[in-house]
């Protein structure tokens, strides 16, 4: 247990260092959709290690409650619609895992203070006991309370960490694909109309399917 705490504390320390480095360069203040092209230039400037810089940026945005959508769109801008999905997925899995472990083992009292008056969290805590991973699936597909807060909140529930990681990885993927395709479409729009149309079409179809999921899940007795 002590070794695990040391590893988690080390991870938190690394995340904090990355955060302050990004803050020093003004990147954390610029994470907005309209600034994605500017951030793209900064990330791409790192060349071969750009994927690691991107993952670090995603991790910081998740742990420190910075906007997540621009960072996901950024993957499409920097790496394109295919590799962008790969790197954004890896980054999201790492990030939600770190937040979960911080809540469970490092800052439990602090996180409890954040969610103690949140009615949706109380319902989720109850439903984890009744439905297990299904409620995690629902909240990943239908963000009924803020995504970054979700990651910490699940660390307070009884859900097992491997199940949390696996279910999150699977059911965050559709939303990740939508946002990355949008980023990839803008890049392709600089020179290839048909590629742009394809990427926007993929994003549109997935958005339509995602909009139908809440109705389907509620019909199947998900109690939120």
Which short descriptors sum up this protein?
224 residues, mainly alpha, 79% helix, 0% strand, globular
User: What gross morphology would you assign?
Assistant: globular
Tally of contiguous helical segments:
10
Counted beta strands: 0
* Strand residue percentage: under 5%
Helix content: over 70%
Structural class: mainly alpha
Query: Helix-strand pattern, N to C?
Result: HHHHHHHHHH
Residue runs with pLDDT of under 50 for 5 or more positions? none
How far apart the termini lie comes to: 35 Å
Q: Report the average pLDDT across residues.
A: 77
Question: Can you describe this structure?
Answer:
By secondary structure, the chain is an all-alpha fold. Helices cover 79% and strands 0% of the residues. It has one domain (2-219). The protein has helices spanning 2-24, 36-44, 50-63, 69-106, 108-115, 119-131, 133-141, 147-153, 161-188, 193-219.
Write the layout of secondary structure elements.
Layout: H1 2-24, H2 36-44, H3 50-63, H4 69-106, H5 108-115, H6 119-131, H7 133-141, H8 147-153, H9 161-188, H10 193-219
Quick structural gist:
By secondary structure, this protein is mostly helical.
């Amino acid at each position: 247990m002590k070794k695990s705490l040391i590893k988690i504390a080390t991870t938190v320390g690394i995340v904090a260092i990355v955060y302050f480095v990004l803050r020093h360069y003004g990147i954390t203040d610029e994470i907005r959709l309209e600034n994605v092209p500017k951030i793209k230039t900064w990330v791409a400037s790192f060349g071969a290690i750009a994927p690691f810089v991107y993952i670090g940026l995603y991790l910081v945005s998740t742990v420190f409650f910075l906007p997540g959508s621009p960072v996901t769109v950024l993957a499409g801008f920097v790496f394109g619609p295919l590799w962008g999905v790969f790197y954004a997925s890896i980054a999201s899995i790492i990030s939600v895992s770190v937040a979960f472990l911080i809540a469970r083992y490092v800052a439990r009292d602090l996180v409890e203070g954040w969610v103690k008056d949140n009615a949706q969290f109380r319902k989720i805590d109850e439903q984890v006991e009744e439905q297990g991973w299904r409620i995690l699936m629902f909240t990943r597909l239908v963000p009924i309370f803020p995504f970054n807060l979700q990651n910490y909140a699940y660390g307070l529930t009884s859900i097992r960490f491997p199940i949390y990681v696996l279910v999150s990885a699977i059911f965050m993927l559709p939303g990740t694909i939508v946002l990355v395709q949008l980023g990839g479409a803008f890049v392709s729009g600089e020179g290839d109309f048909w590629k742009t149309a394809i990427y926007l079409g993929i994003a549109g179809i997935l958005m339509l399917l995602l909009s139908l999921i809440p109705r389907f899940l509620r019909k199947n007795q998900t109690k939120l």
